[in-house]
Design brief:
Blueprint (H helix, E strand, L loop, with lengths): L12 H12 L8 H4 L13 H4 L6 H5 L7 H14 L3 H4 L13 E9 L26 E12 L4 E8 L4 E7 L1 E5 L4 E5 L6 E5 L5 E5 L4 E4 L7 E4 L2 E6 L4 E7 L11 E8 L18 E8 L3 E6 L6 E5 L21 H4 L1 H8 L3 H25 L22 H12 L13
Antiparallel strand pairs: 1-2, 2-3, 3-4, 4-7, 5-6, 6-9, 7-8, 8-11, 9-10, 11-12, 12-13, 13-14, 14-15, 15-16
Length: 423
């Protein structure tokens, strides 16, 4: 007589946080808990792979629109629109903990979007008719392609590449987080190999923009309502145009509702002698535009010499866009959704004991393969990127990585299973 699995009781958010806190307390004083890679029981996890969850394309049409403007300020503002929409998941939903990525795990997907969002019409250098309607490419559908691979386990680092060939815009970088538990919150910072997002506009003489990540805090651990707050400065620089943006996320007072305010400036700078890191140090004569608003709501820009703010973007009506994924039968065994598929099914089916066992089996296999590589003196290398954590900040695609991206563009996903030990 076969037994039928009975769904286990789903823990509520309060009990999840209590368990999470009891685990975190063991790491008080640890410099970087992200590097420890501690294992959580399945009931505390979001049933999603980290590589699938962690991308910067919650609104891919803003990425596809970068480079549209014929004006240098217009292109910087296009990059800012991408910046403010890249992580909508933290604004529209609650923070969560996806699965830790395993060495050699990878994820690929795409989006088909309008190349120019309607609200782009209020940016300088974007061609419009007398009614403010975009006159070029407004109805053109373009594809945004995404490939990421876990390239290092100690430290945990993944490389990513974003491409929109029709628009001639691409981006790449290394993702690595450093986290410290303070006792009441978790301070999350970019790791040493995470130098930000590097955006390249091929059709604008290969203009490159470096977007650095601010420090953030995961709070609400004690009151049972997780939230992300940012009270730090980040920078966007373009050496070719000599243009820089400083964005200051303002710290909230302890009384009153969070306003999620930010302010910033776009100004001329000297890439060879760049020492300005604070808004107050930017000479008034160098300012091209001011930026301000709520990064949860409306953000405005005001060109220098004018007084009336212009809407840059309204975050309020926007939600993360859904991805186009390779067919399940064409995904490899180390492709994120298939690799974690059984764990995900168990969590969704509320079989938390089974999910935890499956997750622990995966982790044990990874340890065994690492031991085998060490015993056989085999160096593991990424499949789609040339180095685990180099070149510094800007990973390069291997020949196979280039082919995979081309396959995503063409809708061709067939790949051979890797024979590399540990992949």
């Amino acid at each position: 007589m076969s037994s039928v699995a009975v769904p286990e009781k789903t823990p509520d958010d309060s009990s999840k946080l209590k368990t999470f806190l009891s685990i975190l307390r063991k790491f008080v004083g640890v410099t970087d808990i992200a590097s420890v890679r501690f294992s959580l029981p399945a009931q505390l996890l979001e049933p999603r792979p980290n590589l699938e969850y962690w991308n910067y394309l919650d609104r891919p049409e803003t990425f596809a629109s970068i480079g549209t403007s014929d004006d240098e300020l217009g292109r910087m503002l296009e990059v800012l629109k991408f910046w403010f929409t890249k992580d909508l998941k933290y604004i529209k939903g609650k923070p969560c903990k996806p699965y830790n990525s395993t060495l050699g795990e990878f994820f690929r997907c795409s989006w088909e979007v309008q190349s120019i969002a309607p609200e782009e019409a209020n940016l300088p250098g974007v061609k419009t008719d007398a009614n403010g309607v975009i006159v070029e490419d407004g109805d053109e559908k373009v594809k945004v392609c995404y490939l990421t691979e876990q390239t290092s386990h100690h430290p945990p680092v993944s490389a990513f590449y974003i491409d929109c060939p029709e628009r001639g815009v691409s981006a790449r970088g290394f993702d690595q987080l450093s986290a410290k538990f303070t006792g009441t919150s978790i301070r999350v910072s970019p790791g040493q190999h995470n130098l930000g997002i590097f955006v390249n506009i091929e059709k604008r003489d290969n203009e490159e923009y470096q977007l650095t990540h601010p420090h953030a805090h995961l709070g609400g651990l004690l009151r049972g309502a997780l939230s992300i707050t940012v009270s730090d400065t980040c920078y966007i620089t373009c050496p070719k145009t000599g243009m820089k943006a400083i964005l200051q996320y303002l710290e909230e007072g302890w009384i009153g509702r969070s306003q999620n305010r930010m302010e910033g400036v776009v100004f001329r700078y000297n890439p060879e002698k760049d020492t300005i890191t604070k808004l107050k140090d930017v000479p008034e004569s160098d300012i091209i535009a001011r930026v301000n608003g709520s990064w949860h709501g409306k953000i405005y820009y005001t060109p220098a010499g004018t007084k009336d703010p212009i809407l840059l973007i309204d975050i309020e009506p926007l939600y993360p866009a859904s991805k186009d994924l390779p067919p399940s039968e064409q995904q490899l065994s180390n492709e994120s959704l298939k690799f974690w598929g059984e764990v995900t099914d168990a969590i969704v089916g509320k079989q938390f004991t089974e999910a935890t066992k499956l997750k622990q089996d995966i982790e044990e296999r990874q340890r065994q393969r690492a031991a085998e590589r060490k015993e056989q003196d085999v160096e593991w290398k990424p499949r789609f990127f040339t180095g685990a954590v180099t070149p510094l900040g800007k990973p390069e695609l291997t020949e196979e990585g280039e082919k995979v991206l081309q396959g995503i563009r063409d809708g061709q996903f067939a790949l051979e299973e890797s024979t590399v030990l540990g992949a």
